[in-house]
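Field: sequence (string)
Field: structure_tokens (string)

Example rows 1 and 2, in order.
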Amino acid sequence: MPTSAQSGLLAAAESVTSAWRMSFSSVHFLLFLPLVVAGFFLLPQKWRRAWLLLGSYYFYFFAAPKYLVVLLCGTLATWLLGLFIGRAAAGKPRRARMAFGVVLLVLGLCFFKYNGFFAAFLSPLFAAAGANYPGGYFTTAGALGISFYTFTAIGYLVDTARGDVPAEKNLLNFALFLGFFPSVTMGPISRAGGLLPQLQNPPAKFDAAGAADALRLAAAGYFKKLAVADTLAIFTTAVYGNITAYTGGTLTLAAAAFAVQLYFDFSGYTDIARATAQLLGIQLPQNFKNPYYATNFSAFWQRWHISLSSWLQDYVFTPLVWSRWTEKLPIIGKKVAKPPVLTSLAITFVLSGVWHGDGLCFLVWGTLQAAFRIGEEVLHRTLGKPKKNAGRAARAGKTAVVLVLWAESLVFFKMGMTPLPAGAGQGWAVKQAALALVRQFSPAGFARIGADISSAVQNGFYNDGLIAGAFILFCLVCTALALWADWAEHHRFGGQPFALQLGAFTPGARWGIYILLVVCCFAAFLAQSGGYGGASFLYGGF
């Protein structure tokens, strides 16, 4: 627990950085990125990695100042653990060291990510015993990005133990691998075999063609984030912040809107992250591949948050399927030598839910994903796998089922992201999510739904009917454009980002799209920053 002097320094750092809070959508980042890229290519080759590491820690410090020390300690610990594993003989000695390292990293993740959750249950027990829960300074929120860089670190230790990658002996290289600023806060989750070699040998020359593609990708990412996700968030936040005030049709529309919002928010962020890395000549993995066109949940999870789902498959699901750890369990150990595939699926998806957040809503969400995936597997085993050459209507029907189940499950995800009222326990959010699902079936006419939508937007945006109407129209147009681009990616460009195809367009069409993206992003930024006379919105806190 920090001393009073340390707490004072941390508070001072918070006050300094709050005015210049760093995120991909901040003005600070737009000033920071050109300086980092220019310095990277102007400096001699031997200094570039140090420059990039300095920039990465600067980025993280202004994003979450009090948690930079957590990232630093985690980096040093993982680097030492990697060397410790690499020096062991192959086989059991190396696996034992790997298990030790993984346990340490998981314990650190649990403390910094779930401390607030534990505090809600343990604080009363400590108080009853006349003591304070020793969570102290870190009970309020999880360390920024710790879920992402901890999984990156665990993957590195496992790959080192398996012999897939050698233990990195250079601390500078490893610190840059774990703290690389485009991916440290929200991924994609990188693998050592993919990212480390690029950082060990950074590009010698600036790639103008690659930079042009990167800028196109970044522009598309900002459009998804600013013009689509954050405008939809005004509506969904208002609805889920006061569920009882809205009717069935509005709640159904809010569920669909949040599914679109979440997709374009996260995929937009990923586009910006990949573009930022590409400006430096570094390639990050594609994280989304048009998941809303999947015809089953197996395909969905091969397209949604790919770096996480592939990580879970390689480091959780596959080891569970092939392991024999259950032999040591009492009673059932001799009967169940290996966990069945369906059990392994359940464990993997529940873990995915817990990874996303520390509330009960995320546990419910993960359990629902497990139920969807297991139910699908049982149907395939019972009725046979569907034909690959099914007709267009059959494919559309199956896609619709996947989307409906996914959108409804995201109601729990959304409520898990919603701050709890004072004095409310974790069960409150679960009850609110269940209430929202039940109230979707309450009858309401189109006039009432229209009134609800207008009320939600006016409450969340600006109390003027004309401005609210213009905002709704703007939101619909931007969302339609984003969905059309997503359709084009899937049906015309083989899942490759639409933005990367713009170079093949005619100059007139290409520049028309550029201007449209800039205008929409600027208008959305004004709207969410109170540019029309309203209060500060989402970006006011960044």
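Row 2 begins here:
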Amino acid sequence: MYTCKNCAGNLQYDIESGKLKCSHCKSLFDPYEVSGGMEADEEQQYEVTVFTCPQCAGKIYSMDTQALAYCSFCGASSVLEGRLERMESPKYIIPFTVSKEDCKRIYSAKLKRERYSPDWLKDAEHIDSFRGIYVPYWIYNASQNGPVEVLATKENEKRIVEDNQEKIKGYSVYGDLKCEYRGVAFDASAAFEDELSEQLTPFDMRKLQDFSPAFLSGFYADIADVTEDVYMSGAKEMINNATTSFIDTQPELYGYHIEQVPYASDTYHTLMGKAELAMLPVWLLTYRKNGRVAHVAINGQTGKLAGRLPIDRKKYIGENLFLSLPIFATLGILMQFFNVTMSTLIATYMMAIAVLCVAGVYAFNIKKMWEIENLIEDIGFHAAKGKKIDVNKRRLDFQNATSIWTVGGGLLGFGAHIVAITFGTDGGLGDPETAHILLGLGLFFFAIAVFLTGRESFKEIYDSKRKNPFWWVLIAFIIELLCFMLKVSDIIRGTGIIISMLICTGAMLRLVRYHNRMITRTLPQYKYRGGLDNG
């Protein structure tokens, strides 16, 4: 803790002035002057106080030596006793420029735009819970120098098919490349989610300053527990992709498109420099619900907001009902005005299509939610546990496993529909019922694409409760398909439509419930070092 040389008051970093400010006499001090005069070994380390929560065992790090009465992990009101410890100093820091009041305005504006957000999120006490945290990031630099040759294709050029292979004329593009990349950032904390970190970027790396522990006074900070090599390949891939995009946008290549560059690091002569650790400013809002915590983050330099908000199911149901009623009423009036009638057969067909859409949306979102909730693709989280995960390979394996169903079923479904629509209207298929059968087959092939892909999506998900609504939607589709294919009464078809609508509504409501669970985490969540709720 730094004290004022005039009155011995507590010094905290003041965002508005960019200096340390005395809480008593309001004197201002330069952070580097306050922390100056350190020995050579002290420049590599600085002293903090380690606090441990008696309830969740979470550790909190602070520049202050006074005992804390609040745990930032679980929100427990317990007295946390601390001990002194020395920490490694990072290379750079970007001080906070967005104040706590700015955060509250940004967050409140976000809530106003979110129609389904619960009212308790708008509570003044909740919004006042923002805390300033310095999150460690690895800063990667790279250079690319030398002659390059890449392949380009001409836009809108006709493709030729020979020997069952599609061919297109390629053009070699030559040139000398000289690129310098500075400030490619990846978070170095296993506790700070990769997805949240990516949403917060970019930071303006031109504002990097040499680190001084005085900047942390009045704020929290997170620990760097992910090594620089974990994100090295990701940083290199990002840099190579940026170079490809840069070449593609050159005026001399107007009308041409640069194809994907294999072995891009060799082609572009990419040379990665040594990664350097920097502390970047983040405002974090943590809230607790049903024994779980969730968070919203705001970039402490740019004010960019990241994070997901829960959905109020009552608002979701009420607003959708309120909007759907006038829509159906308007359609009914228009159909009467133009003397248009809709048979139960057509309504059944349309309901079958709607059920397939619901199934696809449910399977995709449940898979994505499960991955986010369990940090399946969080590279830093797994690296801290000694595991290595290849996100690109994982996604490619899923595409390879599902492509046969999505492509095959989709093409067969569209083909059956095209034949039925093209030839069925003029009797070209002979029996008029043939077009009806082909439309049913088209629905069946679409169902193969949707439900087998969905089954593949659920292979990793161990929670059977999340799978059940998907299979109920399958039952709804079978009901609609049978009602469409068989000669049944209008009453049976109408009953089938109502049953399917109820099943699909239940599935979407269950999706909302899982969304609310996805955005929360089990306790404890973070490992902080830091200070007061400044701003």
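free_text_note (row 2): The two ends are 17 Å apart (CA to CA).
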